[in-house]
């Protein structure tokens, strides 16, 4: 029953308040008819395409009685943002380090014992070298149909171009606590910086059934080790001493 004047805009508010970490789907349907009840003239309504027939209401006299707009809505809940301590991955430039990063996901669906989404997510960083495993281990009681997508997001395209080729990430283990419903994901992070830097990133985990969790990370590359020490011995006062050494470029 909302009246619209020509060229007038209509805002349609959509409220989303999820109670579990799963994706919700809905369709916003808008039906428009003329205020005077007359039809829009359309000479060849029988020749309407299949796609158009689903979005218009054709009257008996061949005119168009109403027009439908259908907007699908996907509601993807995101874990509450909180002040988590970033997981720090530190390495000297021109070296390589591997670290295990453990994240806890609350409210994962499905699961009868899943905790509400209002519970805080947590992140644990263990600075022990990781033993790389070829396959993801799934403990008993964890549904193998639940899959997770993950990626590292950076603050800018410049940071992404700088860190993208220097950081590798692989999911090596996941398990679920049958009592609390909390899912634990363990990642193996490889960091091989080529120069000193300090950049922030965000580990984003998304469940295929819906739900997004975000965890802050910090990558720090310290000064590299000294390559060599060059000693120059003086041959006498006011005389030049020369020493030669080679530099080899690792790239073209």
From TrEMBL:
GO terms for cellular component: cilium. Pfam families: Ig_CFAP47. The gene is CFAP47_5. Residues 78-222 form the CFAP47-like immunoglobulin-like domain. Keywords: Cell projection, Cilium, Flagellum. This is Cilia- and flagella-associated protein 47. GO terms for biological process: sperm axoneme assembly.
